[in-house]
Structures are given as C-alpha cells and as structure tokens.
Amino acid sequence: MQWKDALYDYQMYLKLEKRVSVNTIEGYLLDIQKLINYSEKQPLDYTQDDLRDFIHTFASSDYSIRSQARVISGLKSFFGYLQLEDFREDNPTSLLETPKIGMKLPDVLSEKEIDKMIEVIDLSKQEGQRNRAIIEVLYGCGLRVSELINLKISDLFFDDGFIRVIGKGNKQRLVPISDYTIKYIDLYKETIRVHVPIKEDFEDFLFLNRRGKSLTRVMIFTIVKELSIIAGIKKTISPHTFRHSFATHLLKNGADLRAIQLMLGHESITTTEIYTHVDQEFIRDAIIKFHPRNK
After folding, report:
1. Which of 168, 173, 189, 225 is catalytic?
2. Residue 152: what pLDDT?
3. Among 30, 35, 86, 187, which residue is least crowded by beta carbons within 10 Å?
4. In order of start, what are the domains of the chain with their CATH numbers?
C-alpha cells in the first residue's frame, strides 16, 4: 500500500464513517505528512521503533507538548484505521505514550472589552454593519468560526427565537438567539446584504464578502484580530475567544452548566467544565455565599 492510496482511503473513512469535520481531517493529514517527510517508508513498513524515533526527533524540534500530543493522536488514529481494515495485523502506535497536557485556561474578554471592540468598528464602511453582526453572533450565540461562516438564512428561526447550527460531525443543534442579536443581523441583511451581487450557490449564506461569496475562516480571524488591535486589547484573541466569553459570562450570571453544554454543542459535559475554572472570583463568591462556615 502506497501513501497516496492509504491517505485517500483514510480520508474517506474519517469523512463518511466517523463523520469528522473537514478541519479535523485536514489537521490529521497535516500531522501524517510530517511522518511522510521524515522517512521514505510506506505506511505498512513502519515499526514501533520507527515511530518512536520519529516522535523523539519531532519532540526535539522545539514543538510544544500540545503539538506532540496532537501528532501522536493523529498517528494512533491513522494506524488504528489500517489495523481495523486489515491492512496491518498490528498497530505500531499502541505503545506510544502521549505526553500529559496541563489544563490551559482560555483567554476571556470582559463585557467592557467586547463593547470596546464593537465601538471601534467603522460603520461608514460597507463591511461595518456585517462585522458588527458577526461579533454579535459570535458572542451572543457562542458559535465556532466554522459554524458562523456556514450559517444560512434558512437556519434563522427568529419568530421562535432560535438559530439552527451545524456543528462538528454535521450534528445539528438549536441555539437561542436574543432580540438584541437579531436586531443587528436584520440590520445587516436589510441595509448591506441586499446590495451585494450574490454568486450562484451562495444565495442562502448569511455572511458574504464583497464578491458575493461566503466568508472564510481566515477572514473572520483577520476581522477579529484587526478590531482587537484598534481597540488596544493586549490579550491573545481569536474568534473562539468570543465563544469562551459567551460560556464564561453565562456561567458567571447563574446559567446551568448543562444548558451551556447544549448551547455550545459539547458531547461531554467534561469539556464544558473548563469554564468553571476560568472565573476564580465567581467561584470564591459562591464559596463565601453558600458554605455554612461562612454564615
């Protein structure tokens, strides 16, 4: 089996059977490419010692612990697939140890910082109202960037107060949307989007670029980065920061953790529980208020 055939079959397996997102598939393939660049061996020729040597070399190249863990995870998935499909009798990654990753708390914006980023949006420009609506949706609904750029007009159920979101693995969920956020979406649709020359096959996409096509992930990252610089915010900010802020602010104001899990589309509540570690002041206030020794 040659790499070309193995990668194609593996990609189809992830897409059709595992229903993995396009971004995750690309990440796996990029990590496997590192192994291909390391050695001229074909996938069925690798031994445990070969992979240990590769990981040792990779770890010695100043890659972070998180990057090392991701590459090992990708290799385990790939060689596990080869074993599952009987291309190999063994899995040479079975004894590879994944380095432990300490919990990394996400950066969170305060309400004032979010307001500041919105205030610096230049509404005199054509894309100003669109960018305002984008930020309001990211923060108001807690969407992933991939969910935002694929949001359709047919997914908007404003009369019922929900939007339909297609998340990881093409799983659908309904996310509540406030009248406040609806107002800025409608403003963009009625004053800006109606004047965009929309390309064929993009008629249903909510957020469009000047050429009438859907926005890319890179474009959303660029918009957020530029606004944070203009607003003078020193934190490391990405579109995902608004998702973290959405969850943290809900938790801080008393929302149930299970409800936040459903809104974020987390399969496991363990993933959502990271937000209980973000706001230490909130946790301290809860202890002071509710522990019997403090009464």
Report:
1. 168
2. 96
3. 86
4. 3-84 (1.10.150.130), 111-286 (1.10.443.10)
